[in-house]
Design brief:
Length: 192
């Protein structure tokens, strides 16, 4: 019997968009996958480890499914870190406009307002170095044609898969990925 794909979704900054994210992701079950969005509450004083623990709890509870981590924007760093540390139990990693590299290219203002994001970025850069070639091939970076907020080059790791979709901008591209491009993304997830 084929195991169902379970996408564990870590959102980016902008906690106020979580209801919109949740509504968009609820439609994905029509494409045959289960999605669990784990709120990151980036702007809270909650420590990085507490945010991470919520995601790990879902990973451990879903061991009978094919788990794919999906990180959006700042959530890409969290998903990348968890993927690297659970690479033997996860099917793969997908990021949507994911801020996966260049922790030095984030404004100090954003880090002050979202302190756990800085920890997440630094950890992601450290663990990314240790990913094998095979692990990187199970990582898909979904990007738009152009994103001024998270430049495409900062979403990619050498050897990862790149999926470029016709969109421009950051918020618009993420919204398009969660809605009109959802079937394409789920199709790619199912190929991991």
């Amino acid at each position: 019997m084929k195991r169902r794909v379970h996408i564990i979704y870590t959102p980016g900054l902008g906690d106020r968009y979580d209801p919109i994210r949740r509504a968009c992701l609820s439609v994905w079950r029509m494409y045959g996958v289960r999605v669990t969005m784990v709120p990151m509450r980036w702007m809270s004083d909650e420590a990085y480890g507490d945010k991470r623990a919520r995601v790990e709890e879902i990973i451990h509870k879903s061991s009978d499914e094919k788990i794919v981590l999906m990180g959006e924007s700042a959530g890409g760093s969290m998903a990348l870190t968890l993927y690297a540390e659970h690479v033997n139990t996860l099917v793969g990693l997908v990021t949507l406009c994911g801020k996966n590299t260049r922790s030095d290219n984030v404004s100090s203002y954003l880090y002050r307002r979202n302190p756990a994001f800085q920890d997440s970025m630094h950890r992601a850069e450290v663990v990314a170095i240790g990913l094998s070639r095979a692990d990187r091939r199970r990582f898909v970076s979904v990007v738009p044609w152009y994103d001024p907020t998270v430049p495409v080059a900062q979403t990619l790791l050498p050897g990862c898969q790149k999926m470029t979709l016709p969109a421009v901008g950051h918020l618009f591209s993420i919204f398009a990925m969660l809605t009109i491009y959802a079937p394409l993304i789920v199709h790619r997830v199912n190929k991991l």
